[in-house]
Amino acid sequence: LIKALFSPAFYSHNYGYRLQMSAFPNGNGSGEGSHLSIYIRVLPGEYDGLLEWPFPYRVSFSLLDQSDPARTKPQHITETFSPDPNWKNFQRPRPGALGSVRGGCLDESMLGFGYPKFLSHEEMRKRNYIRDNAIFIKASIDV
C-alpha cells in the first residue's frame, strides 16, 4: 500500500516559486483511511530573493475525471484556496528546513497546505477518477 506520493519539485512560473505537491491515496490526518489527501508546499528555490513573500497566489487542485469525453462530460473535482499571508507554510522557506514525522502522519510543516479530506474513497469510485490503477491530479497556480 502506497502511503504518500511526492511530485518532483516544480516552479510556479519562470523565476518563480519552487513548489512540491503530495498526495496520500489512503488519506492523512483527519482523512486517513477514508479520503484522498492532497497538499502543496513551498520549497527553498533559486529565485527566492527576487520574489514577493509570503507566497501570494491562488492555488487550485483538480482530480481529473478519466471518463471518455465522447460518452460523458468529464466531472473534474477542483478545490481552490488563496494563501493567508499569516500562514507559516507560505513564508519564505529557510534553506534546509524540513518538517518531522509524528505518529506515522507527516506533520503540516512537511506537507505545506492542503486538504486531508479532498475526496472520499466512496465518491472516487462513483466515476472514472481511478483508471488502470492511476489517478491524475493537477495543481494550478494563478500567477
Would you give an account of this structure?
By secondary structure, the chain is mainly β. It has one domain: Apoptosis, Tumor Necrosis Factor Receptor Associated Protein 2, Chain A (Sandwich), CATH 2.60.210.10. The protein contains two helices and ten strands. The longest helix has 6 residues. The N and C termini lie far apart (36 Å). About 5% of the residues have low confidence.
Count of runs of 4 or more consecutive helical residues:
2
What is the H/E string? EEEEEEEEHEHE
Strand content: 25-35%
Helix content: under 10%
Structure classification: mainly beta
Under the CATH scheme, the architecture is Sandwich
CATH superfamily: Apoptosis, Tumor Necrosis Factor Receptor Associated Protein 2, Chain A
Mean pLDDT: 90
Would you state the CATH class? Mainly Beta
Find the CATH topology: Apoptosis, Tumor Necrosis Factor Receptor Associated Protein 2, Chain A
Overall body shape: globular
Model regions low in confidence, pLDDT < 50 over at least 5 residues:
99-105
Q: For the CA atoms, what is the radius of gyration?
A: 16 Å
**Whole-number total of structural domains:** 1
Please identify the oligomeric state.
single chain
Largest sheet: 5 strands, antiparallel
Distance between the termini: 36 Å
Number of strands: 10
Domain MATH: 1-141
GO molecular function: tumor necrosis factor receptor binding; ubiquitin protein ligase binding
Protein name: Tnf receptor-associated factor 4b
GO biological process, one term: regulation of canonical NF-kappaB signal transduction
